[in-house]
Amino acid sequence: MLVHDRLTRRSIQTVFLLVFLPLFALPLAVILAASLSTNWSGALPSGFTLEHYAAVLNGPTLDALRVSVVTAVIASVCALVAGTWAALSAHSLGPRGRRVMDALFMLPVAVPTVVVGLALLVAFSSPPVLLNGTQMIVFIAHTVLVTAFAYQSVSAALDRLDPVHAQVAASLGARPARTLFLVRLPLLLPSLSGAAGLCFALSMGELSATMMLYPPDWTPLPVRIFTATDRGALFTGSAFAVVLMATTLLVMFALSLVRTRAGHR
Amino acid sequence: MTALAPHPAPRVPEPRRPAEGPPPPRRGLPAWVWAVPPVLALAAVVLYPLGAVVAESLTGPDGAATTAHYAEVLATERFRDALATTVFVAVCATAGCLVLGLGLALVIAFVPFPGSRAAGRLVDTYLSFPSFLITLALLFLYGTVGVANGIWTDVTGADTGPFDFMATPWGVILAEITFFTPFVLRPLLAAFTQLDTAQLEVASSLGARGGRIVRSVILPEAFPALVAGGALVLVLSLNEFAIVLFTGAKDVVTLPMLVYSAAILEADYTTACVVATVNAALSVCLYLLYRAATSRLRGPAGGPRKHGTQKDGTQKGGRRAGA
Questions:
Q1: Is residue B224 part of a domain?
Q2: Exposed site from A174, A250, B99, B191, fewest CB < 10 Å?
């Protein structure tokens, strides 16, 4: 306890809440409230309605949600496989090789996402590989962007992993494949499911690279939210955003259950 | 978990995707061989595309190598304005995040109250939401027909309210501060939990007041986390696109925005590639500085151990002795 004076403590906490609530708690509440209203020009929203959510259920928005979920699942699975493989192989290298792998796999985080999108567009609009205008290019972009985070999580988990389990398994005669699949990967399962949640959330909300290269027949939900708000339909956009957040939280919650169960084993 | 080693076969859950997982190193095959497939995949979808951007920016209409595009684009007022706006927004947002993150972290860690932990967790959930939601919410709050102006016109009876900054760089800065503060807050809170509370008690019993303890005990300990968080926010805000896109401001053109409008709205790929190369070079340089700072300043028990235990041990000793 840093401040012993009661009055000072109370005033510090008041200032904290005065800064914290408008800045962090209010935005999420505002989106939720707006998605249920027809009008908001005074202090409080007015005209309770569910019609923005009805707009989600029929028509292209449900399609956009499906597109987003499919893209996020594909990107997360690919990113987990690639990221885990890369992290495991980087871990068995020396410190120098490890640094090179770290730098390579964290590169997509450092490069602006818009540039990642532009790069894929430029590279795959001309031979030898033509992917421009396909769904494939969206999958690739999302996978590239989230693989860095999968790599980072798995790499950090490997650092914390006690090597003694794998050593015991090996000393009991388990071949490296058996050790990997029956000892190391199960031990990594909690962090793998955490990484999966992160990848899914990031891919669900990805807009920058997607704006650069989504084909008309594969419009993810963030793009729908942007087109809605861009033409002034802020309330409908909020409803879409709530659906996006709810889906993301639901999947992350399901994955955290996997994590807890894996942790208890 | 500890039950795994003695009875591996019956107790261990099935691996998630046995067929797709990385194959284990086989005896006789050097370790680096297993690093080749992921690196090749990365080369195909990251390095080759980025190379294509740089190549496009350096290729003249006749196919020969030229820097003419750079001379041309870098001289335009549009590019210079975008560069100035980008740096201004990024620096202001970073400064704001550092001040705010430090203040909030100090309160959460050292002047706790019921609910302060929940506040920390709420900030954590921000990291899993897309950034543009913040802009959307701020448009409702401070937009020209937003809540703040609505309250103002209700109270004063004026026709329009005074809040009209969402279409200016300040709107972008406010949104970025809101969204990026967690990136400063998290490492700081982690650093504060490692702080030896005995140091605070000693300083306090020797008569130091709160402000002095923060200045001479807490801040030196938290400095690495502050530097790391600040550098990360600087890179992220240089790269941020969705927040700027959602404000709908025509005047706020940052470098990523310029890349988007040149490539998609004007189909001018050469200009887009030049701007993209400059933007990426800027961000990657800053990111390398960030990596250098974090790996050198990384706390003893803080992040992942990177260079083996022995080196960490010496680091720990050195840091403790210095502190």
A1: yes
A2: A250
